[in-house]
Specification:
Protein name: Kinesin motor domain-containing protein
Family: Belongs to the TRAFAC class myosin-kinesin ATPase superfamily. Kinesin family.
CATH topology of the largest domain: Kinesin
Number of domains: 3
Keywords: ATP-binding, Coiled coil, Microtubule, Motor protein, Nucleotide-binding
Oligomer: single chain
Bound molecules: adenosine-5'-triphosphate
Radius of gyration: 83 Å
GO biological process, one term: microtubule-based movement
Pfam families: Kinesin
Length: 854
């Protein structure tokens, strides 16, 4: 509380609120509300200070005063605000609400003040009571109290006046509120009307635009129609001849023009309605212009639009005038076309007359045609008769067809029967196939029995057999006979080939020996005259000898005949036997020819033919699951020395090949000898050529190609049955022995003599071995020669041996022929045990391993 409190006393008598209209003008009179500080009050306050009136009642009064001042200020402020609100016609509701709030607050404050006044009154009464109770206080104090009560009364009066003011203010506020509401409503209506006007304006604008667009479209349509009219005009000009079409088009055009007229009338009506609307819009726009100045611009634009529309209307009217003028011209054209149509009608009448004449002619023609039809009826009757005959033929053909169909059915049934038969045949074929397979099995069994029987036959025939082959007289031998006057006429000789003579006629028996073949195994040899004379002189009286062998081949016998007989032996080698075939005879008797063959084609000998037989049989047996492997070696024994005919290293120096015997198997083998695998006949041919090239030959007096050595071809055959597991080990020895002539007849000396001695020694050793075997001696002299030692495993009880005794038919060779035949006779009389098949022991493998490694 300030020490000098300023009290602003309100006017109690002359204070009154001015009206809102006057308030604004008398804003400066607000100062009148503040009055100078009353001297009595200051005295009161001074006395109050003096008496230290710092009591609750004084404080409240001060507080009340300050509040009253504050209220006065607020009221003044409110007054100012109200004036401002009044000045501002667009006072917001918020402000009004604030004012109302302020008014409410003021009311509340007034209520509070009244309450506090009551409180203060009560407090004053209490203080008064206190004053009275204390009595200490002076009369001034009571006076002051009275003044205070006066003051309070003043305050009450001021409060009353304030209440009056408040009521007046409230009334003013209510009136203001009412005015404000009215203003607000007016503003709202103004806004609404503005919006409506805007909408109407926009709508009018849109309508105007639409109308303008429609007018534009119509204008374009009119232009298009105009162009169409022009096109139609040109079309009419071009197609004058087509009247009907033109008329239609014209009608169409007229119709369209009428439609256009109607369209134009519609447009006129629309334009009129638009004008009415425009008028209304103008009125509206005038009203809007009156109300809103901003719409004036739009009004001007609308007026411009109106002007444009008016212009368009004028142009449309002008177009319409053009169209109407064109219509007039078109009507003129139509009239012209009508006149043309009349002309055409006249022409048509003329044509009708012409056609009538033509009709008359056609009637005449018709009568003529009717006559022709009658004639054709007659023809058709004839055709009917013909048709009937054809029908009969057709019936006959149908009967034939039905007959054929029956035949076809029969054939079909036959076909079915045949099919059934085929099925039966198929079944029988399958059964036959089964039978064939069974027969195959039987065949294999038969093959087994065949081998057994073949072996038995071989055994019955004897394990060593002798075939005698008499070679023919050679061409060169005939020439020498002629030159020597041994024979006088060459025509008596039957020449079988360029190089040989097959036979000599009986009249020639004087000078040449004769071989009279009694049967297939016996031959009678008649000595030549020369030999008979010498034998008489030497007291030998025999002139003919008979010999029996297993088979005798005449000079006419071919290589095939010979091989046919020995092929069974070759088969034995495949069956697992050891077979030994050798050719014996003097030089030039045909040993090499028999074993290897001649120079000409078709003269292949035993060795190549045996190989072919073995290959073909091996192939056949392959089907019975037999697999064969062949290996071959080729050697010669020359002067008791072994030479490898398959080696490439013939340096000229003789290498000593030793013959060994495998103790386990009894097989002989040559240590270090070449053994080659043979899988094709070509390989064998190559091998034979190579061996022939390596074979040593030397010309002798007897035969310029005489071989002076024994050649031994050994073929090792190992076979195995994949199915049964059976194994067979065969060995085929094919030996071309050296010439067996005696020393006296060969006339050899030196090296040739030594060769002959070795040959004779080995051949006599062979004879000894055979005779020992035949005599079943304990000791068989195999070791006496390299040949017998080598053939130890193939000459004996376990092997099959065949000896060819080759003889020459010449008189010069007769002595040697006799010797050979005698030797062969001895061999043929030998019985050398039973052959045994090698099945388990790998004889060939023993040969291969040892011969190849040592
Ligand atoms: N059966 C035959 N048919 C035709 N010509 C044969 C016949 N046998 C042998 N010759 C011919 O007789 C000649 C002598 O035959 P080959 O050379 O075979 O006798 P060889 O006994 O082998 O003599 P060597 O002991 O000297 O070898 C050959 O020219 C041969 O062509």
């Amino acid at each position: 509380m300030p020490s000098s409190l300023v009290y602003k006393r309100p006017i109690t008598t002359n204070y009154s609120f001015k009206s809102s209209s006057t308030l604004s003008n008398n804003a400066g009179d607000k100062k009148d509300l503040v009055r100078p500080v009353a001297p009595r009050a200051s005295v009161f306050y001074k006395t109050a200070q003096k008496y230290s009136l710092k009591k609750p009642g004084n404080e409240c009064l001060d507080d009340l005063r300050s509040r009253l001042d504050e209220q006065e200020r607020r009221l003044g402020h409110l007054e100012d605000n109200r004036k401002a609100a009044l000045e501002k016609s667009t006072l917001s509701e918020e402000q009004l609400r604030n004012q109302e709030r302020y008014r409410d607050e003021l009311e509340q404050h007034l209520n509070k003040l009244l309450e506090r006044k009551k409180i203060i009154e009560t407090s004053l009464e209490t203080t008064r009571a206190k004053y009275e109770s204390t009595k200490i206080e002076g009369t001034t104090l009571t006076q002051s109290i009275r003044e205070a009560t006066v003051e309070i009364q003043c305050l009450k009066a001021s409060l009353d006046s304030q209440q009056c003011k408040r009521n007046h203010f409230e009334r003013e506020a209510f009136e203001q509120q009412q005015r404000m509401d009215e203003i607000r409503k007016d503003i709202e209506t103004l806004y609404r009307s503005l919006d409506q006007e805007k909408q109407i304006h926009y709508q009018n604008e849109k309508n105007l635009k639409h109308r303008a667009e429609a007018i534009e479209k119509k204008r374009l349509e009119l232009e298009q129609l105009q162009s169409e009219l022009e096109i139609q005009q040109t079309h009419i000009k071009k197609k004058k001849h087509d009247n009907e079409k033109m008329c239609d088009e014209m009608k169409e055009f007229v119709r369209k023009s009428k439609e256009n007229e109607l369209h134009l009338e519609d447009i006129h009506v629309k334009i009129e309605s638009l004008l009415g609307r425009l008028e209304r819009n103008r009125e509206k726009m005038a009203r809007i212009d009156y109300e809103i100045q901003s719409l004036e611009k739009e009004k001007s634009t609308l007026s411009r639009h109106n002007e444009q529309l008016l212009n368009e209307e004028r142009t449309l009217e002008a177009n319409l005038a053009d169209v109407s003028s064109k219509l007039d011209s078109l009507t003129v054209e139509i009239q012209r076309l009508k006149s043309r149509e009349e002309m055409i009608l006249n022409k048509c009448k003329q044509e009708a007359d012409y056609l009538y004449d033509c009709l008359q002619d056609s009637l005449q023609k018709r009568e003529q045609l009717e006559r022709e039809v009658e004639a054709s009826h007659q023809v058709s009757n004839q055709n009917k008769e013909r048709w009937n005959t054809l029908q009969k033929q057709v019936d006959e053909l149908q009967s034939i067809i039905s007959q054929k169909e029956k035949e076809l059915e029969q054939e079909l049934t036959q076909k079915d029967n045949l099919l059934l038969q085929m099925e039966q045949i198929k079944e029988s074929i399958s059964s036959q196939q089964q039978e064939i397979s069974e027969l195959d099995k039987l065949c294999r069994q038969d093959e087994m029995t065949r081998r057994y029987l073949h072996n038995l036959v071989q055994e019955l025939k004897g394990n060593i057999r002798v075939f005698c082959r008499i070679r023919p007289i050679l061409a060169k031998e005939v020439e020498s006979m002629l030159s020597d006057n041994v024979i006088s006429d060459a025509n008596r000789l039957s020449i079988s080939s360029a190089s040989s003579v097959s036979s000599i006629t009986s009249s020639n028996t004087v000078s040449e020996p004769q071989f009279r073949i009694i049967s297939s195994n016996s031959v009678e040899v008649v000595a030549p005259q020369r030999y008979s004379e010498t034998s008489k002189s030497s007291k030998q009286h025999l002139s003919k000898w008979s010999f029996s062998f297993d088979r005798i081949f005449s000079p006419e016998s071919t290589q095939e005949d010979v091989f046919e007989e020995i092929s069974q032996l070759v088969q034995s080698a495949l069956d697992g036997y050891r077979v030994c075939i050798f050719a014996y005879g003097q030089t030039g008797s045909g040993k090499t020819f028999t074993m290897l063959g001649g120079d000409n084609e078709g003269e292949s000998g035993v060795i190549p033919k045996s190989m072919r037989k073995i290959f073909s049989t091996a192939e056949c047996l392959y089907e019975q699951n037999w697999e064969f492997h062949l290996k071959a070696s080729f050697l010669e024994i020359y002067n008791e020395t072994i030479r490898d005919l398959l080696t490439d290293q013939n340096t000229g120096k003789e290498r000593n090949y030793d013959i060994k015997i495998d103790r386990l198997t009894g097989a002989t083998y040559v240590v270090g000898l070449t053994v080659e695998d043979i899988s094709t006949p070509y390989q064998l041919e190559k091998l034979l050529k190579k061996s022939m090239a390596n074979r040593s030959t030397a010309a002798t007096r007897c035969n310029e190609r005489s071989s002076r050595s024994h050649s031994v071809f050994r073929l090792y055959i190992s076979g195995r049955n994949k199915e049964t597991g059976q194994e067979r080990m065969g060995l085929l020895n094919l030996i071309d022995l050296a010439g067996s002539e005696r020393l006296n007849s060969s006339g050899s000396t030196g090296d040739r003599l030594r060769e002959t001695q070795h040959i004779n020694k080995s051949l006599s050793a062979l004879g000894d071995v055979i005779s020992s075997l035949s005599n079943k001696e304990k000791h068989i002299p195999y070791r006496n020669s390299k040949l017998t030692y080598l053939l130890q495993d193939s000459l004996g009880g376990d092997s099959k041996t065949l000896m060819f005794v080759n003889v020459s038919p010449t008189a010069e060779s007769f002595q040697e022929t006799l010797c050979s035949l005698r030797f062969a006779q001895k061999v043929n009389s030998c019985q050398i045990g039973t052959a045994r098949r090698v099945t388990k022991v790998d004889l060939c493998a023993g040969f291969f391993n040892k011969e190849a490694t040592m």
